[in-house]
Amino acid sequence: MFKGFFKIEEKEEGESQAAASVPGMPSGGPGASGKHLKSSVPPGLAALKNQTDLAACVMPLLEALEWRGDPRHVAESVPHFIDGLDLTSFRNILAQLHYESRPLRINLKRLDPRNMPCLFLPENGYAMVLIGLEEGHDVRVFDGGQQQYMVVPRSLGRGTAYFFRRIEEDELIYSQAKVGWFKTVTDRFIPLVYQVFGLTFLLSLLALATPLFVMAVYDKVVATGSLSTLAYFSVGVAIAILCDAALRNLRNRVMAFVGARLDTLIGNLVFQKILFLMPAFTERAGLGAQIARVKDFENIREFFTGPMAMIPFELPFVTIFLTVIAVLGGPLAVVPVVMIVAYALLGWGMGPFMRRAVSKGARDGTRKQEFVVETLNNILEIKTCGAEKTWMARYRDLSAKAALTGYVTSKFSSIANALAHVLMVSSAVATVALGVFRVLDGEMTVGALVACMILVWRVVGPLQTAFLSLARLTQVRSSIRQINNLMNIKGERQPGQLVRPIRSFQGRVTFSRVSLRYSPETDPALVGVDFDVEPGQVVAVVGGNGSGKSTVLKLIIAMYQPQAGGVRVDGTDIRQIDPIELRHAVSYVPQIPQFYYGTVSQNLRLANPLATDEDLHWAVNQAGALDDVLALSQGTGTWERRGFDVRIGDQGQSKLTASLMQRLNLARGYIKRSRILLLDEPGNSLDFEGDKFLMQRIAEMKGEVSIFIVTHRPSHLQLADSIVWLDAGHLRAFGPAEQVRAQMPKDFV
């Protein structure tokens, strides 16, 4: 019996997961919220090294808000690289759980009970959760310092209350088949768009101050020599300029806010969508293609945060300038109208050529980027094969194609710039030429002509910018279309959806004539595979390279869906089980260990976010690596890290031996304490001692855990109850280990 492998804590429905209190803690004290406490670890926050009063308040607040999630969802929302919970991290956790927060400085006496529950940070004391009023107008709270529920008087004093509201509108973002996902998101900013339109209208009116001032100086001051009149005009135009500067600053702040919100909102949602895509989508696309998807969003963000974003707001108000030109110069208004028509015709004529050039340039640039990413990702293999010259030749070819399409795009841009400049100069010449005749005829003054000249430039300027932005607009439209297509792909789960975790499986796994082909142009990975594994059995999956061994394990954890037949766990087809929860409930140890930048404990908790420090020590000990992990050290002096706090991944990973990495890989599988354990070539990289530990664990788990082990080692086959023998995707044999081994060639393993 594998003692201690299962540690299942079942809770009654509705039982509080956070009501455990630790009496005797200090009751408040000076200092801000987030103060360090020596306390028990709240459920779901075991990863925090330093517990604070805010950490103690997370679960009680969620309970008071009638949140229906699981402590694991809370643990998955904790920022990765923090040791303790401060106010910002607290609000980020609630945001990840789809609660928006709003702070308000208030006296507790004046707090409306209808705004409870909420988080309250008193000026002196620990954070607390305000739950509701009690008889006698006292308040029932959860005190984060004492970590217990209590009743406090409303005369507690002033502080900051944080009110939380469940965000429901995110559901709308993923039901946008008709209007497009991007438009659904940007509709959130319509009130701000109206504000920018209003500010642009006021700025357009203030823009009239300068040409009217120039006209008045020519006609009134120069003609009469009145300096007092000049002073009055100067004061007026100075006020207009100051107002213009203030409104422009306000408009820029609004646009900066919109850009920041777009960056946060759309960027996070695009990245989240990529994470929730079915594995088949992401594995078929290379790393470079995934980066290109993120780059699509960056093109959109740069457009909306750059100067070109103001063009749609400014173009409608050129009518104001046209009206003033018509009033001052009469027929001179024809000049900017002709320029508007000319720019429109040029844009219509050159648009298709620009779109084709930009589209081809984007494709060639993406191919070049994908190749660079692929090269950097496999640089060791390239050097091992001595293929530097071959790779350089391939890069030179891709670079030449990208440069050629870039040249074509630049050529069109140069032509567009030249034509735009000609139209700009022509508008100035035409205005002066026509205006001179009107001045000579006495139909307008010299000051009016100069004012009209300035206003014509104000009309033609946005037109020129819009015309020169045609290529950029084409890129943005293409990026929006790509993002809409990405967001319309059905994912494994709706992001933000809370699914009740699977508590435990019994461990029965059934394959019913399963067939799978990764892509139409490849041979089948599995063809009609059929077997039934009872709970607690150890099953060895054997076969040659490419026979489908790893595919069997990936099907069990729903990384792929069979195209024919079905895979059932405990009698339930895996297509009826949430795939993400299925993977949480099944332990999978991949063939190649992969660790990410973070501490040893953080990497292990990726498999089980609720794992305590005791769980970590237990799992690593079961893998035979506890002494090695405790002996790890990093840094010196005050920055020294030891044991489970040592950072691995990236450069830190190279300090670990291959055997230790594989043992930690196994520990990450053990820490789930699942009744189904999938081991893909677990003996790879293990030294003799590590392999002995592995075999001991398998022997101890036999009868309690269903174990699938892909292996070629005869010593592992001796532990198997049954063997699945695959050959080129076909099931050669399945049955008791001794019977199948008797059918195998002597030199097979």
Helix-strand layout with pairing:
Blueprint lengths: L35 E2 L13 E2 H12 L6 H7 L9 H10 L2 E9 L10 E5 L5 E6 L5 E5 L4 E5 L5 E9 L3 H4 L7 H6 L3 H17 L2 H16 L2 H50 L2 H6 L2 H19 L5 H4 L3 H12 L4 H44 L1 H7 L2 H53 L5 H23 L1 H19 L20 E8 L9 E8 L4 E6 L5 H8 L7 E6 L2 E2 L5 H7 L1 E3 L8 E2 H6 L7 H10 L3 H5 L2 E2 L6 E2 L4 E2 L9 H13 L5 E5 L7 H14 L4 E5 L3 H4 L4 E6 L2 E7 H7 L6
Parallel strand pairs: 11-20, 11-21, 14-19, 19-20
Antiparallel strand pairs: 1-2, 3-8, 4-5, 4-8, 5-6, 6-7, 9-10, 9-12, 12-13, 15-18, 16-17, 21-22
Task: List key phrases describing it.
six-stranded antiparallel sheet, 749 residues, 51% helix, Cathepsin B, Chain A, ABC transporter transmembrane region fold, alpha+beta, 22 strands, Rossmann fold, six-stranded mixed sheet
Describe this entry's structure for a reader:
With 749 residues, this protein is an alpha+beta fold. It folds into 3 domains: 36-167, Cathepsin B, Chain A, CATH 3.90.70; 173-488, ABC transporter type 1, transmembrane domain (ABC transporter transmembrane region fold); 509-743, Rossmann fold (3-Layer(aba) Sandwich), CATH 3.40.50. The protein contains 26 helices and 22 strands. The strands form 6 sheets. It has a 6-stranded antiparallel sheet. It has a 6-stranded mixed sheet with strand order 14-19-20-11-21-22, sandwiched between helices. Strands 10-9-12-13 form a 4-stranded antiparallel sheet, covered by helices on one side. Helix 7 (209-224) runs antiparallel to helix 8, helix 8 (227-276) packs antiparallel against helix 10 and helix 10 (287-305) packs across helix 17 (470-488). The longest helix is centred in the middle third of the chain and has 53 residues, at 388-440.
